[in-house]
Request: fold
Amino acid sequence: MTARSVPFFDYPYVFTSQENDLISVIRDVGRRGAFIMQQDLRDFERHIAEYTGAKYALGVGNATDGLCLAVRAVGIGPGNEVIFCSHTMLATAAAIHFAGATPVPVECGSDHLIDPESVRAAITPRTKAIMPTQLNGRTCNMDALLAIADEHGLIIVEDAAQALGSRFKGKCAGTSGAAGAISFYPAKTLGSLGDAGIVLTNDRQVYEKLHMLRDHGRDEDGEVVGWGLNSRLDNIQAAILDYKLKQYDREVARRRQIAQMYQDGLGDLSELTLPPAPESDPNHFDVFQNY
Reply:
């Protein structure tokens, strides 16, 4: 029997599948000297906002930074607790920690996403926010979380790193709470050629705070108005992502087609628990990250 190694992700394919077009994008940006916070970034931010239905989108260096900045932008810091799902990447908890707050993990439900009842049980007087992870391209039951948040006066910041275009009841991941962060790490459904992320919000004040925090504390006029970091989405990556976004719906449709093929071929095996099939729940539109 011949052994075969199947990689978890084919990283060279991100580049080689569109090599000529991507080289053209990079050459165009380079010849213009448009490297930091140029029109390519502004165009991509606008197109992502339009795609997700968010009022504002702000490119950042990566989604972990995005989550950390979002937590800070909505007023969470030392002395506050943020509830998050234990079934997630370390970055979720790290973002809370580096914003100065305390991460509080809770269980996931049968859908492998955050369990609303576990959230309710974990609330203390120090709880300030809930951070659901929209894992594997699926958005959790945001109605249940928003009800809990309203009841207890909590803020929701979404870790939507893996969920660009995923929807719950027609609303895109990252747009239901005060803010949400999306990753463009190369292995994501929309992948860059390096680290990259974006933060979505519908709140103008949160947007302005994020703008300041990502760029050395400078406001939109370039005036330093507070302490900030250096976490700007690289302009070449923004141009690459903007090019790839034009084909994104086709990419998602293909992923959903393949997911249905898995369901048809493996769905009857009791030994496996598959992700929900593409058309199994009218409330959910999944993009099948990692599947």
